[in-house]
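Why does residue order matter? Because the sequence determines the fold. Keep that principle in mind as you read this record.
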Amino acid sequence: MSTHGWQGIAGVCTAWFGASSLVEGAALAARVLDLAPTAAVDLRASGVLVRLDGDTHLDVETHLDVDSHLDAITQAAEELGLVADPSVPQQIGVVIETAQPEAVQPFWQRALARGPGEDGHLADPLRRLPPLRIREVSGLGGARNRIHLDVVRPAAQVEQTDLGPATGPYGVCHRDADGNEVDLVPGDPLGEAGANSGTEDWQVVFGAVAAYRVQSPARQRDLAVTAAEFADEAGFPLLIDLRPGVVVLDTGKDRWDADAHRLDVDFVDLAARLQTAARGLGATADAGLASFVQLFFDATDIESVRRFWAAALGYVEDEREGLTDIYDPRWLGPPLVFQPLDPADADRREQRDRMHVEVTVGEAAAQRRVEAAVAAGGRVLEESAGRWVVADPEGNELAIRSPAT
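Structure:
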């Protein structure tokens, strides 16, 4: 499905409209929420991602179909001078293959604070973080991938998660029944802790996040527009995610810190201004909605593995010295981090699991992604209608899917 730049991504009508500022994008976000209040809208300094579930209606009384939504939103974007780019939308998720889903699924529900979905699908209820799918497979072969998840949540939530004793050098590593790993990391308050600090609504979960519940769509739009104005005025590329009844303000990984954003901005001061504005609009902070997920790879040859994943996902490399991160240039997907394997650590070198990454892209982009992955050192392991499994130079698997699958 593709019309007017819209793509069917993992069953959801999705479009990216380029913009030159947060304020410009906020004007479209406001129009989208007027037309489809249940839409998921990700507002960025470079554009707006809009996602419409198939059962969304343009008007609850007339029940116009989804195509009318697409036409109305596209027209609103055109009136604002914004153009859709169908090459941008994608969804990155994680799949765990297991012979015992009943033993594995409860572990990941607690780690990620997600409820059970259909077919083992553990989706982020806010649709901000990568979905995780637990797939039952019989007759599993040898474990193949060196990947684990980093999950960061507020400290109070981590304490209540009950995943059992943690291991590892930082005391945060947990393993499910099959040995798949997650580092569950406690976050911290931004700035001075305690009430009346001016930033107590903000949690540092690798990025600084303030999540607000709002009383009405009008207040949601007002908060989004105000946050966009403040951020543009400060010259800071804030991430603003809008969901029914919720506004999430986010810096992206590390960018609350001056060493990461490298701008002439005191983010703590900006955060305090944003908090004051949000409270003035009657928004209520919900720290439990602040969370972060990144994908973490062990690699013997970091450069070759990193190059593969950047090409396959359309990511860019973090330019900071000493870091191996790659990230979505539009800050829509999870970061990836690569850690060198110690040649002397025989146990770690043998560690492999049944967790792999899956990316769904528009139908026209799928073949290009496969070609880019192969050109960057990958090899195709499997191919079927609309689905390719590609291995990176060290054997870690990526499934590339088109909407038809």
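The chain has a mean pLDDT of 91.
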